[in-house]
Automatic annotation (TrEMBL), chain A:
Gene3D superfamilies: Winged helix-like DNA-binding domain superfamily/Winged helix DNA-binding domain. InterPro entries: BlaI_family, WH-like_DNA-bd_sf, WH_DNA-bd_sf. Pfam families: Penicillinase_R (PF03965). Belongs to the BlaI transcriptional regulatory family. This is BlaI/MecI/CopY family transcriptional regulator. It comes from Streptomyces violascens. Keywords: DNA-binding, Transcription, Transcription regulation.
Automatic annotation (TrEMBL), chain B:
This is Membrane protein. Belongs to the peptidase M48 family. InterPro entries: Beta-lactam_resp_regulator (IPR052173), Peptidase_M48 (IPR001915). Residues 117-185 form the Peptidase M48 domain. Binds 1 zinc ion per subunit. Keywords: Hydrolase, Membrane, Metal-binding, Metalloprotease, Protease, Transmembrane, Transmembrane helix, Zinc. The chain crosses the membrane at residues 6-22, 34-56, 84-105. It holds the Pfam family Peptidase_M48. It comes from the Bacteria. It comes from Streptomyces violascens. The lineage of its organism: Bacteria, Bacillati, Actinomycetota, Actinomycetes, Kitasatosporales. Coiled coil: none annotated. Its cofactor is Zn(2+).
Length: 123, 320
């Protein structure tokens, strides 16, 4: 208890952020041991693995098998965001629009009409 | 109460001619504001009317808010009521509440989901997502957060520099004009009274037109905006883009052109006049007067019915 009082307990979010930062600094795919060393703190190896696994479930990091353990790399944030956004849009698409889309579907007649209109507009 | 109670339920029928006449003829900014306001007023009145029918008609059901004085035959004789209509109104009200609640929930979920999707990205005003499917959206911000424009790389690849500028200006116009609020009001109104559905489609269209006009002013060339819309729509292909709001039914035979060709055609015409109130002799003027008269009549009869009920009840309770 006294140990905990002296060192302020940090939230999981902060640790996850630091682990992610470590992976971004890494020269390439690295092991959990490398992350543990980089953090330079008295963190148990299993704690680091737990955090990495949690980040993996959140799709914030990717891992590859290397021998008997994993090597870890940070996920591509923009690509992740794109996949998550597509999920939102696909779910919305089935039930009419909440968000106003820049363009909506064309019927074949619309397509024909649009080509005529733009043909006339072309410079 | 009499006929005044039922009037607000039927007056939303005027939405159809209003949407047909005012939608294409007013400046899109005015049209969006007027149509969603009219829709909102008519929907509130229609719901109020349902409430009155329900309260007066279901007095015998437990949990009714009417005071005990209602049981007095003299009071009952003054206020017309119908148990069957009251119970039907109760069911309809429940359906309205459910439909509106569902729409609000869906709005919240989509916006929260979209915001969550972007969490990992830097909090910039614009987010470009690597996705070959062409799309562009304006994500409205919450009460505190600012909105964001989300564009896929697939969309940007389709357009040249000036067309991209037009696209961004269009989405920015949605955000600065807070167009999602008008769409939400019109959507809720359409669920409160199905007669108001034409207004929902009309507002969806005029809000896009409003953003198109703002974008055209921002880039200084209407044709660039028209080209951007055309290219994006043609590349999205059938079934790949989001399903649009169906066009209003046409008077003439044959399918009416969809929203995209109508937007492009409007951009190829000169800037629409920004007159706030067109002369009464024109079709737009006629629509506006109909809208105003319908909304006012609806509001007046709802207010009248409420007043009558409240006065009678107050008289009844104080007399006993």
């Amino acid at each position: 208890m006294t140990e905990q009082m002296r060192r302020p307990r940090r939230g999981q979010g902060e640790l996850e952020a630091r682990v992610l930062a470590a992976l971004r600094e890494a020269p390439g795919p690295v092991t959990a041991g490398w992350v543990q060393e980089w953090l330079g703190e008295p963190l148990a190896y299993t704690t680091v693995v737990t955090i990495l696994t949690r980040l993996h479930t959140k799709q914030a990091v990717a891992r590859e098998r290397a021998g008997r353990s994993f090597v870890w790399i940070p996920a591509d944030e923009a690509g992740l965001a794109a996949r998550r956004m597509r999920k939102v849009l696909d779910a919305e698409r089935d039930r009419g629009a909440v968000l106003a889309s820049f363009v909506t579907d064309l019927s074949p007649d619309d397509e024909q009409l649009l080509r005529e209109l733009l043909g006339g507009a072309g410079d | 109460m009499g006929v005044f109670v039922v009037l607000p339920l039927v007056l939303p029928l005027t939405a159809w001619p209003i949407a047909r006449l005012a939608g294409p003829r007013l400046h899109p900014r005015t049209a969006t504001r007027v149509l969603s306001l009219v829709g909102g007023v008519l929907a509130v009145c229609s719901t109020l009317c349902l409430l009155l029918l329900m309260v007066a008609g279901t007095a015998q059901l437990p949990g009714n808010p009417l005071p005990d004085a209602w049981a007095d035959p003299e009071v009952r004789a003054v206020v017309p009521y119908d148990e069957a209509v009251g119970q039907a109104a109760l069911l309809v009200l429940a359906a309205v509440a459910l439909a509106c609640g569902h729409l609000l929930w869906r709005h919240g979920r989509v916006r929260a989901g979209a915001a969550r999707a972007l969490t990992g990205l830097p909090p910039s005003r614009r987010a470009v997502l690597p996705d070959e499917r062409p799309y562009a959206y304006a994500l409205p911000g919450g009460p505190r957060g600012r909105g964001r424009v989300v564009v896929s790389s697939g969309m940007l690849d389709l357009l040249d520099a000036r067309e991209r500028e037009a696209l961004i200006a269009h989405e920015e116009a949605h955000l600065t004009g807070r167009h999602h609020r008008f769409l939400l009001v019109a959507g809720l109104a359409a669920r409160a009274n199905p007669f108001l559905r034409p207004l929902r489609s009309a507002v969806a269209f005029t809000a896009e037109r409003w953003a198109d006009e703002d974008a055209a002013r921002a880039v200084g060339d209407r044709r660039v905006v028209a080209r951007a819309i055309g290219k994006a729509a043609l590349a999205s292909g059938p079934g790949r883009g989001l399903r649009g709001v169906p066009p209003l039914p046409a008077f003439a035979a044959g399918p009416a052109p969809g929203p995209v060709p109508r937007r492009v055609a409007a951009l190829l015409r000169p800037v629409p006049p920004a007159r706030a109130w067109p002369p009464a002799g024109t079709a737009a003027g006629l629509a506006l007067w109909t809208a105003t008269a319908g909304a006012a009549a609806s509001a007046l009869s709802s207010a009248n019915a409420t007043l009558v009920l409240v006065t009678v009840l107050r008289g009844a309770t104080s007399a006993l």
